[in-house]
Write a structure and sequence with these properties.
- By secondary structure, the chain is α+β, with helices and mostly antiparallel strands.
- It contains 11 helices and 10 strands.
- The strands form 2 sheets. The chain has an 8-stranded antiparallel beta sheet. A two-stranded antiparallel sheet has the order 6-7.
- The protein is globular, with a radius of gyration of 20 Å.
- Bound molecules: adenosine-5'-diphosphate and citrulline.
- Adenosine-5'-diphosphate binds next to strand 1, strand 5 and strand 8.
Length: about 350
């Protein structure tokens, strides 16, 4: 393998940090699951428009390729290499209200966390039998959920195109064919081993074997963030009785993309900002001040429609889950206050 031919279009944190010296240092490193530098950087190489450009194939990738991952993690999360990550999933520690009780601005609220099983490689390096085993273990654990969290698992391979499209359009299911995942090896054997579990109301959902082995999701219409967080924490406590998740004291919950390390939590609202949405400079300024990220309403790499934006916490590592939610809450209050002023 030669030093990659980066073009002017390669603007990712990977392209920025992978110097020829670092490349030489890491080019022959291999983890116990066979993950190489080539595997780690391929998504960013094949997709010059990547923001980050790296994926980990296992927990060891974060250690063996630390000279590349660490500066990326530091920059994205504003997290120091010698800091320990702390978890707080106690809803009683939240100090928030519904930021939009009249339901004028917030269409819906969603909080998800990524989780991976401790005994398997991550999605980019997992084998098909291992992936099937993850699916089996997750489905077994989910079958034990009770009350409002009880539901059913739907394998992607057994789903009609009609049902799939409806679930995607309604924001419940992941899409196929992500080119960043493709180059990272995350789409191998698609759709085998992938699927979605959900309760009757579709307020509690679990994606199996997408970017992470589990994406555990709580969502509902309106802006009651506390209800959404509380449901998620209850579900997590139940699942942890049956599943053992990858976690290190330094990096928290381990995820395939370094942006998801730590809490692995993305707390988001779909919010109507028709006036502020026309002043992107001001919108960007407020979201940056509150450590928030703007996405379109059909997920990552989609655009906003009709003045509705997906606004979520950007930082996930080195702050607790409660703090992620506080970031969202304070930012959303500021956005609504500005939107009111402009209208
Ligand atoms: P993830 O959140 O898992 O990183 P995406 O950004 O691709 O992945 O979003 C996944 C799906 O969740 C998309 O269909 C997106 O529109 C939907 N979604 C995200 N936030 C909300 C929200 N607050 N309300 C409704 N749907 C949402
Ligand atoms: C990238 O490098 O741009 C993709 N692999 C996605 C990275 C995480 N997404 C994000 O921060 N918006």
């Amino acid at each position: 393998m030669k030093y990659p031919e980066f073009t002017k279009q390669h603007q990712s944190l990977m392209a920025k940090h992978l110097s020829p010296e670092l490349f030489t240092q890491l080019q022959n490193v291999v983890t116990t699951n066979g993950v190489t530098l080539d595997n780690v950087i391929n998504s960013g190489l094949q997709n010059p428009d990547s923001d980050i450009g790296v994926y980990a194939g296992d927990t060891q990738s974060y250690q063996h390729f630390a000279p590349l991952f660490n500066p990326i993690i530091r920059q994205y999360h504003k997290f120091d290499d010698d800091t320990l990550h702390t978890t707080n999933l106690n809803p009683e520690d939240l100090n928030i209200d519904d930021p939009d009780p009249a339901e004028q601005y917030i269409v819906s609220t969603r909080i998800r966390v990524g989780r991976n099983l401790a005994q398997f490689p991550l999605g980019p390096a997992i084998t098909q039998p291992e992936r099937d085993e993850v699916e089996a273990q997750a489905v077994k654990a989910l079958s034990k959920m009770s009350g409002a969290l009880s539901g059913q698992y739907f394998a992607l391979s057994g789903m009609s195109d009609e049902v799939k499209s409806q679930l995607i359009n309604d924001h419940f299911l992941f899409k196929a064919g992500d080119r960043f995942f493709e180059a990272a090896g995350l789409n191998r054997d698609w759709p085998a081993g992938r699927g979605i579990y959900h309760n009757n109301d579709k307020t509690f959902l679990v994606w199996i074997n997408e970017e992470d082995q589990l994406r555990i999701i709580s969502m509902q219409a309106g802006g009651n963030i506390t209800q959404v967080f509380t449901r998620l924490t209850k579900a997590l406590a139940e699942l942890e009785k049956h599943l053992s998740f990858s976690f290190t004291q330094h990096l928290g919950y381990i995820s395939s993309c370094p942006t998801n390390l730590g809490t692995a939590m993305r707390a988001s609202v779909h919010i109507k900002l028709p006036y502020l949405g026309q002043n992107r400079e001001l919108l960007n300024k407020i979201t940056e001040e509150h450590h928030l990220q703007i996405r379109g309403i059909h997920g990552e790499h989609s655009s906003s429609e009709g003045g509705v934006f997906d606004i979520s916490n950007r930082r996930r590592l080195g702050i607790t889950e409660v703090e992620c939610v506080q970031d969202l809450y304070h930012g959303v209050l500021a956005l609504i206050a500005q939107e009111k002023q402009l209208s």
